[in-house]
Amino acid sequence: MANVLVCVKRVPDTAGEVLLSADGLSVDARHVGYTVSPHEECAVELATQVAEATGGRATVLSVGSEDAVEQLRNALAVGCADGVLVEADADLLGPADVAAAVAGVVREREAGGLSYDLVLLGNDAADTGDFQVPVRLAYALGRPVLTGISTCEVQDDRLLARGDGPDGTEVFELPLPAVVAVMEGGVSPRYPSIPGRMKAKRAPVETVALTAARQGSGRVRLKLPPSQPSSVEILGEGPEAAPAVVDLLTRIGVVGR
Amino acid sequence: MILVLVETDAQGATLVSREALTFARETAARLGDQPVHAAVVAPLEESMATLVMKQLGEQGVAVVHTADDERLTTYAAAAHAAAVVDAVRAEQARMLVAAGTPRGNEVLAHVATRLEVAMAANVVAVDSVEPLVVTRQVLGGSALEEMRLDDAVAVLSVAGHACDPEPAEVPTAPERLGYTPSVTDQDLVARVARTEVTVVDDTAALTGARVVVGAGRGAGGPDGFKDLLELTELLGGALGVSRVVTSLGWRPHHEQVGQTGSRIAPDLYVPCGISGAIQHWAGCQSAKTILAINTDRDAPMVTKAHYAVIGDLHEIVPAINEELRRRK
Question: In this protein, which residues make up the domain named Electron transfer flavoprotein alpha/beta-subunit N-terminal (chain B) (predicted)?
Fold first, then answer.
């Protein structure tokens, strides 16, 4: 039996244009809505798979505002058994703060008799892109950590994990407990079923206050890259444009040299 | 002193590591002619070491710290970080720089945690040196963050292709300082057990390609790539696809270009049937020239491109292929 804690972050859904708040300290997401990163959707799927395969429990956790309960319920609808919200203004926290908050929950639950053999997170947050919370969490807990992992499974008290490396698929085998940062691409997140959604509404979500000291993110302000006016040159329409395309390829040295 | 963690491949110091060295050298000049040192953690064959020393000399590196420990041949982030921390402490580096690659960011995260300092990932510019404020990519590159680094050691990774790897005005003959790193057994627990190369994975070929042909939803299905693959071959390039293509299972994930895939910086990028969502733009914005093929002339990929052809890729791409063959 392996219990899994999977962490998700409520982030602005910035598929379209990004707007900043008036003070430049956060993203104005009122018109775009919120989501979690694809990496985290895959982490939730892996957490559910490991819990199902071993008869353990999958718990979903988020550090953020009370609105992040929406993201917790989405994970509860696809197989997580319970949720934890560490209530905080995530914009004010740096990766060390988030790691300390998660470590606090892991230790508290362990003291209460529930130990997590595996903690899964997304490889990097879709908004801040710090690439640090999994590593800092692992050190806080004194556990080994892997990043960039596509698939993982638990065999007895060992973890077997795979991820893309520079020379092919890298395979890792390590003892549990461990911390793993998941990359999109190894599993397909399942869609919530109607019974799953119903169950998610009733599933317990514990809210805890952030107690760790705040180191902050060092953010001075956000800014948008200068928007370039479109200067596109239309070479033509349809297959008749092919000679103009090859002329261009020749001119910039891609062919004919 | 600024210390740069250098990654190597079959060609010696990687392109992005040489970019990081240029970035470090320019920053060192602003800090008052600080020397730049390099750390090479993975053991190198002697002929490779000679090549790397020459490349680092072209980048004006004063000293190269090489960790002598065969256990580092197999990658383990914690062990590599232990070796980097040794070099930082021995030389009292005030800044540690690496390329913003998966491994660069991973090792730096370990180092920053061990040194109990902050880390800035994917930096594109140094705004001021006193206090130290850097600009870095957030939201997959669609926004930027100014971040202040106040710790005794500033740890930062440089976003891929944020600058060109310019040789130093005065090349150096770097001094090579071998040392025995303080790697513990615990640091080796999360090491690569084995690498499987049975599945052809062209991620490296994609990120280093001079020409990338892109394919999006407009490909139409798993069978819609024949002409695109032919164009890729005619141009001697690599195929890169949008997230929707990998999500639908039309092509493998390692071909994805974007925030959750590879970041590319080719001389030419030819996105075909790709609308150009921010997620995708994050991965292809460093291309020197972009030629978009799309049915919608208002698609972001078209308006952001340098050149475009309007129409159905399934008609246009075969015509380009034929024209290329005709002129060969």
Answer: 2-192
A12, β-bridge pairs: A34
* Residue carrying the six token digits 């062919």: A255
Specify whether the CB–CB gap between B85 and B114 falls below 8 A: yes
B143 phi, psi to nearest 5 deg: -145, 165
CA separation for the pair B42, B285 (Å, rounded): 31
Which among B144, B148, B201 is the nearest to A223, CB-wise?
B144
- The residues with which B6 forms a beta bridge, in sequence order, are none
Residue-wise pLDDT for B264-323, tens only, equals 889 999 999 999 988 898 889 889 999 999 999 999 999 999 999 999 999 999 999 999
Which A-chain residues 42-101 have CB contacts (< 8 A) with chain B? 94-96
Would you give the DSSP letter of residue B183?
-
Q: In what order do the strands lie in the sheet with A4-7?
A: A145-149, A178-182, A118-122, A4-7, A58-64, A82-87, A205-209
Side-chain-side CA neighbours of residue A45 (13 Å):
20
Of B141, B148, B201, the CB nearest to A220: B148
Q: How far is CA B127 from CA A227, A246, B96, B123, in A?
A: 20, 42, 17, 10
Beta strands of B31-75 (E only): which ranges?
A: 36-40, 63-67
CATH superfamily of B203-327: TPP-binding domain (3.40.50.1220)
Query: Which of A220, A224, A231, A247 is the best substitution to test chain B (most B C-beta atoms within 10 A)?
Result: A220
What pLDDT does residue B261 have?
Answer: 86
| CA-closest candidate to residue B141, choices A32, A217, A225, A220 | A225
B19 in Cβ contact with B161 (< 8 Å):
yes
Kindly identify which residue of chain B lies nearest to residue A19, measuring between CA atoms: B143
DSSP state of B87: H
Instruction: List CB contacts (< 8 A) between B119 and chain A.
Output: 95, 130, 132
pLDDT digits (tens, 9 = 90+) for A115-148: 999 999 999 999 999 999 999 999 999 999 999 9
User: Cα angle at A40 between A180 and A115, to 5 degrees?
Assistant: 45
How do residues A165-219 score in pLDDT, each as one tens digit? 888 899 999 999 999 999 998 999 999 999 999 999 999 999 999 876 788 999 9
ipTM for this prediction: 0.93
- Using an 8 Å Cβ cutoff, are B287 and B265 in contact? yes
Question: Are the beta carbons of A132 and B112 separated by less than 8 Å?
Answer: yes
- Nearest CA-CA distance, residue B51 and chain A, Å: 20
Q: Are B244 and B221 in contact (CB under 8 A)?
A: no
How close does chain A come to B133, measured CA to CA in Å?
8
Interface membership of A215 toward B (CB under 8 Å): yes
**B2-188 maps to CATH 3.40.50.620:** yes
Taken in order of first residue, the domains within chain A and their CATH numbers are: 4-209 (3.40.50.620)
Which ranges in chain B are annotated with CATH 3.40.50.620?
A: 2-188
Q: How far is A71 from chain B (nearest CA, A)?
A: 19
